[in-house]
Write the structure tokens for this entry.
Amino acid sequence: MSNEDSSRRHFMKTTAVAAAAVSAQSSSAAQSPGGVESGGMRAGQWPASRPLGKKVLWNELARSEFPALLENDPVVILPIGSLEQHGPHCPVDMDISIPYHLAAATAEGIDDFPVVVGPPVWTGFTHYNMGGYGTITVRLETFIAVVSDICRSIKANGFDRIIMVNGHGGNVAPVTAIANKLAQEDIMTLSLPYWNLVDQEMKDWSTADLRGPGHGGEWETSFQMYLRPHLVHMDRREAGQVRWPYSPAVRKYAHVPERRRESANGSMGDPFSASAEKGERIFGLAVERLTAIVKEFHATPLMHYEEFGSDTKVLPSLF
Ligand SMILES: [Zn+2]
């Protein structure tokens, strides 16, 4: 059975038994402490259920379980990502899987108050990866509408504290704009790309890319080798073939994303320098930092948009 077949089988099945079987069949899969563990599933098995420990996934809660969560200033972490080609060796759900796993591990580690992982938003603004098999994009307007409405719905359910954790570069500017727009509606969110949590360490601990997170390069591949090694095709790795038209000094101001222009093979970075150990280390630190943010957000009195006199009724046409 090819690794591709194994991955497809895995996606179709959601039990720990199936995951373990596929993992064992995948000849090129790297083994790591982040893989399937005996006795149940760990965060790596998205979108499977998580039978171990307490419930943290919004999607798995019953209607009757929500009121109790609302009693102690809960925080909702909303993972946002993308489905797009990530080079020949990585799964296309890379950009949603990392924020999802970060959110789940963070939520599971906090016991003092409720932390809920919002429904993972796998739809991203990623037209520039079209042309690489597996990519599914939505239009910018669609992305903004979907993420905004999900946040509005979470707020309407009584959850006042929402942290959007994004895993895709093309979503960064839209998510920031969404957060600014929602503030006008008195939905005061926090939002961040996950790599900002560990920006410096991605540079300091890198042995090849000296940056983060790349695209199927050192860090993204390391995350997957730690979280879901059975989905990484080690034998198909290729170094990114970056071919930007500008010098680094000008490049940072260019907004011409077209993956095939940026990289001849769709990858950016060096997956050969990736390891499960690197993935575990950077993932652990990101969880630690996200945990601190969640705790402070929970403990800080709610902000309200109109507290300082901004009257949303004065200029209704601006809303
Ligand atoms: Zn990515």
